[in-house]
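Morning - iron/sulfur cluster inputs below, output right after.
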Amino acid sequence: MRSLDMRDLVDKLAQQRVLGREEFKALMGCDDDYLFARAREARQGAYGKQVFMRGLIEFTNYCKNNCYYCGLRVGNARAKRFRMGLAQILDCCQTGYRAGFRTFVLQGGEDPYFTDEILAPIVAEIRQTYPDCAITLSLGERSFASYQRLFGAGADRYLLRHETAHAAHYQRLHPRGMSLQNRKACLGHLKQIGYQVGCGFMVGSPGQTVSYLVDDLLFIHGLRPQMVGIGPFLPHSDTVFAQEPAGDLRLTLNLLAILRLMRPDLLIPATTALGTLHPNGRELGVLAGANVVMPNLTPGDMRQKYRLYDHKISDGEAAAECVENMDRRMKAIGYELTVSRGDPICIA
Ligand code: 5AD
Ligand code: SF4
C-alpha cells in the first residue's frame, strides 16, 4: 500500500475508531511512523504527557494451569516455587507507597493455596491501610462468587488477558480444560461486578495469524475494557514453545498505536515483555501510544523466580530505584511519571 493510502487509513481509524478486517490487516503492516504520531496525538488529547505507574507485586508463582507458553506452568518441574504471606505482601505495599506508587497490582499464577478465605482478608488489609490506592488483581480465572468477594474486600481492578480471541488458536496455546469460552465468561463476570477490567494478548504467539489479531481487535472493540495489556510472545526454555521465535517489535508497536486510535481513553501498559524484547522497548511503547508502566515491587530473590519467559528484565532492586530509573527514561522522551491512582477517564 502506498504511504499516502496508509495515512488515509490511519486518519480513518482516528476518526471512526474501527476499521474493516482487511483495513486492520493492512494497518498492522504499516511502516510509516505517521501511525505513531497520530496515536500520540490521541493519547495527548486524553491524558496529556502523563505516564501512570503501577507497582507490580508477584506474590506467588505456583500455578495449577499448564499454558504451553508460560514458565510458571505446572508441568515445569524446574521452576523454583515461592509464595508470599500477608506480612511480605504488606511490606511490598509499604515500600511501594513510600516510593510514590498509588496502585498495587497483585499478580500470581492460579495458586490453589490462595482461597477466598485467605485472599479476601489480604485485600481488605491493603484496602484499609491504603484507602487512597487502587488495588488491581491479576490471578487468573476464578468463580463469579470469588470475584465478587474480592471486589467486596476492596479490589478495584482486574487484569485477565484473553490471550487470543480465536477459539482454535486458544486451544493451540492451552491444554484441554482451558477454553476461550470460559475466559470470556470470566471477563464478563468481572465487568458485571464492577471491576475496571483489563484484557490483552501476546503478539507473535505460536500459530498466530494476522487474521487472528483482527479478531483480538474486534473482541476488544466489543468488550470495551478499561485496560489492554499486550506484549510480544517470548520463548521460555522449559516450555513446549522453547524453540519458537519471539514476537515482532514493529508489529507490537503498531498494535499499541492501533489500540490507542481505537480508544484514546484506554490504559495501555508498555509491558516488561516489550522492554525485554528491546532495550528501549518501553520508551518505544510509550511513543506508540502506551501510557502505563509497571515497575516491579517484588523482592529480588522472588522476582528472579517469577519467570514467565527467558531473560526477563528488572529495573533495579529497590522500589525507589525503579521509580527513579523509570522517571529518567520517561523524561528523556518528553513524558512524565505521575503519582496518582490513574483511573481511566471518561470520554464519549
Ligand atoms: N511470553 C510473553 N508473555 C507471556 N505471558 C505468559 N507467558 C509469556 C511468554 N512466554 C503473559 C500472558 C499472561 C501474562 C501474565 O503474561 O499473556 O497473561
Ligand atoms: Fe499459570 Fe498464568 Fe502462566 Fe497460564 S499464563 S501457566 S495461568 S501463570
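Note: The chain has a mean pLDDT of 95.

O.
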